[in-house]
Task: inverse folding
């Protein structure tokens, strides 16, 4: 094929793409979460490079209460094809709900920011709001908490993850279970 013929075919392809409504855009993926999602964002970004447009809700989205307060503003700016989210690590934290307003307390005496029941109710409400976007939803489980963590108990993670998995099953939301992998990382 000669150069002139190749240029003509490329030009025709360009016109076809331009006028056909075909758009060579990547799926839009939004990550919403706490420090867990901040930690894995760069890995996901590298993995999805040239496969998806990836964005992260700025900063730490904290617990389910913060999520319920802000979720609509986080999802209203752009229509996303996929929303991956995590919740739990802040919910099970044994600190005051107003972010240490009353000062840190020994975790043995403090209550979780949200009890397992409150967490389940809040998470279910968040999923209902996210479902309204028609995006594919992916929930990421809470990571392992080391035994010497000052404001969290390791055993709480299993309880909160179990509740989250039940809610995701109810809503047919895919679960990315990173608990076991995170446990291996902490125990190296």
Result:
């Amino acid at each position: 094929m000669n150069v002139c013929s190749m240029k003509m075919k490329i030009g025709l392809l360009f016109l076809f793409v331009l006028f056909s409504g075909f758009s060579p855009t990547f799926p839009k993926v939004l990550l919403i979460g706490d420090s867990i999602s901040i930690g894995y964002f760069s890995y996901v970004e590298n993995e999805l490079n040239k496969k998806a447009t990836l964005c992260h809700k700025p900063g730490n989205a904290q617990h389910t209460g913060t999520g319920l307060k802000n979720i609509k503003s986080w999802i209203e700016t752009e229509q996303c094809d996929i929303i991956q989210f995590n919740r739990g690590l802040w919910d099970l934290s044994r600190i005051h709900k107003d972010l240490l307003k009353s000062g840190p307390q020994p975790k043995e005496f403090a209550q979780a920011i949200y009890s397992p029941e409150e967490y389940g109710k809040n998470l279910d409400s968040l999923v209902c709001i996210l479902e309204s976007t028609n995006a594919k939803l992916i929930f990421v489980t809470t990571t392992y908490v080391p035994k010497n963590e000052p404001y969290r108990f390791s055993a709480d993670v299993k309880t909160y993850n179990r509740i989250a998995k039940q809610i995701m099953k109810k809503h047919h939301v895919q679960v990315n279970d990173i608990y076991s992998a995170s446990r291996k990382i902490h125990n190296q």
